[in-house]
């Protein structure tokens, strides 16, 4: 095999063991060979880096032309940042939705209900934390709601963290058990839970689903006056219900 | 869009495929990665790097028989980089992650550590652009797209491998000369 072919075969990634030996030997003993190879390797790196630069520039342009998200939330805890992204996404879909009119409460519910993201117990899957809570939130994230519900119920008995009530309620909503969800959400709101405003939104949606329009409106008005989570969405839903 | 279609577009260096991947998965990636960091600048950078890795591995034919979805692959690359960034190795692999082979990890590390061309590499590129179309094409096919000599022969319709080889050698020589002239 001539030297050029040896170098080409290197770049093609198909040197055999004995060719590899020849290659290494030449690299050490033949300066012309080493120079030729080095030049080609440098060319490859240069071309790759150039291509990467071009792709990055293209993507950066796309990123710059995205509509800026209005994140006015300043002192939120880290997990709430995740939540605020969902809110913004929610608002986006809202506008699309309301370009057309006259939806039934059922349709309004379906357009608005999205299970709340697990923000309290990030699942670190490989960590040896196969505790109950991890199992429950794993089931929740995997949309295995029947399993999640039974695990949340067990958790409730052992652990009084309010947010479990909140997630249990969302799980119940997923399982179309809105009456049970309402009572959990009401408890959670009464206890002034950390995700209270979220709970109010889901309570409004549950009421909507149950056809309790006035109750639903009441909750939506609370959100509007809190002027935080889902305030815009609540306002629009109110207009639609009127 | 179908994964395989995106991959075959990437193999043709069709950048629209990269745009589609960017648009299609960005918000989901940010949501997915927000549990590791909330720094949007870091996430943007890693997401773009992950797309480049996807692109380069598609080019080299690594993804021809992809065992997972394109999304799983992309997100696994991103996650790998996030852990690299935060020096946190305890969670490096999980069940649902794609398992990369040595070559793939080399590409990930290479893209991750790429801080742009150095002075010599910039000079190489500058002079490369001065070459004729035919030379740029053959060199890009070989060094950038990873086509083998006989593949180039077939794709470009050369009579035989030796013609490709000597054409490539001539092009390398021209490039070297240009760089020398530029230096002198």
Describe the structure.
The complex is a heterodimer of chains A (242) and B (184). Chain A has 242 residues and is mostly helical. Chain A has two domains: 3-64; 78-241, Alpha Horseshoe (Serine Threonine Protein Phosphatase 5, Tetratricopeptide repeat), CATH 1.25.40.10. Chain A contains twelve helices and no strands. Chain A has helices at 3-12, 17-29, 31-64, 78-97, 105-112, 132-141, 145-158, 162-174, 178-190, 196-209, 213-226, 231-241. Chain B is mainly alpha-helical. Chain B is built from nine helices and no strands. Chain B starts with a helix and ends with a helix. The mean pLDDT of chain B is 89. Chain A: Keywords: Membrane, Transmembrane, Transmembrane helix. Chain A: This is Tetratricopeptide repeat-containing protein. Chain A: The chain crosses the membrane at residues 78-97. Chain A: It comes from Zobellia uliginosa.
The quaternary state of the protein chains shown equals heterodimer
CATH architecture of the largest domain in chain A: Alpha Horseshoe
Name the largest protein-protein interface in this structure: A-B, 39 and 48 residues
Please describe the biggest sheet of chain A, giving its number of strands, its sense, and whether it closes into a barrel: none
Number of helices of chain B: 9
**Overall geometric form of chain B:** globular
What is the overall number of helices of chain A?
12
Level-1 CATH class name of the largest domain in chain A: Mainly Alpha
Mean pLDDT of chain A: 80
Strand content of chain A: under 5%
Q: How many domains is the backbone of chain B divided into?
A: 2
Outline the low-pLDDT stretches of chain B: none
Work out the count of structural domains of chain A.
2
- How would you describe the shape of chain A? elongated
Beta-strand content bin of chain B: under 5%
Mean pLDDT level of chain B: 89
Q: What's the alpha carbon Rg of chain A, rounded to whole Å?
A: 29 Å
Order of helices and strands of chain B: HHHHHHHHH
């Amino acid at each position: 095999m001539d030297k050029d072919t040896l170098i080409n075969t290197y770049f093609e990634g198909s040197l055999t063991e004995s060719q590899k030996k020849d290659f290494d030997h030449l690299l050490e003993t033949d300066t012309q060979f080493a120079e030729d190879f080095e030049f080609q390797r440098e060319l490859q790196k240069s071309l790759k880096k150039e291509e990467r630069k071009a792709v990055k520039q293209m993507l950066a342009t796309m990123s710059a032309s995205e509509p800026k998200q209005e994140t006015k939330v300043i002192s939120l805890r880290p997990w709430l940042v995740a939540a605020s992204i969902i809110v913004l996404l929610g608002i986006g879909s809202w506008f699309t939705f309301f370009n057309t009119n006259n939806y039934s409460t059922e349709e309004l519910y379906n357009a608005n209900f999205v299970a709340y993201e697990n923000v309290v117990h990030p699942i670190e899957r490989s960590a040896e934390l196969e505790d109950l809570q991890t199992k429950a939130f794993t089931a929740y994230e995997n949309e295995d709601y029947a399993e999640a519900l039974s695990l949340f119920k067990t958790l409730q008995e052992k652990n009084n963290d309010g947010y479990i009530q909140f997630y249990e309620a969302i799980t119940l909503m997923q399982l179309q058990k809105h009456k049970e969800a309402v009572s959990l959400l009401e408890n959670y709101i009464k206890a002034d839970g950390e995700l209270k405003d979220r709970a109010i939104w889901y309570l409004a949606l549950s009421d909507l689903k149950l056809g309790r329009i006035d109750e639903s409106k009441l909750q939506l008005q609370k959100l509007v006056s809190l002027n935080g989570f889902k305030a815009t969405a609540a306002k629009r839903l109110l207009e639609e219900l009127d | 869009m179908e994964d395989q279609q995106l991959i075959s577009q990437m193999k043709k260096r069709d950048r629209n495929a990269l745009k589609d991947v960017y648009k299609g998965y960005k918000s989901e990636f940010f949501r997915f990665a927000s549990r590791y960091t909330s720094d949007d600048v870091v996430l943007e950078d890693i997401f773009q790097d992950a797309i480049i890795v996807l692109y380069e591995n598609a080019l080299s034919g690594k993804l021809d028989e992809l065992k997972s979805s394109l999304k799983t692959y992309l997100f696994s690359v991103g996650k790998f980089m996030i852990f690299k960034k935060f020096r946190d190795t305890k969670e490096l692999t999980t069940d649902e992650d794609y398992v990369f082979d040595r070559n793939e990890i080399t590409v990930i590390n290479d893209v991750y550590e790429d801080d742009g061309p150095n002075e010599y590499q910039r000079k190489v590129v500058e002079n490369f652009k001065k070459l004729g179309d035919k030379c740029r094409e053959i060199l890009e096919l070989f060094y950038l797209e990873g086509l083998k000599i006989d593949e180039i022969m077939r794709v470009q319709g050369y009579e035989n491998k030796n013609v490709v080889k000597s054409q490539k050698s001539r092009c390398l020589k021209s490039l070297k000369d240009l760089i020398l002239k530029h230096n002198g």
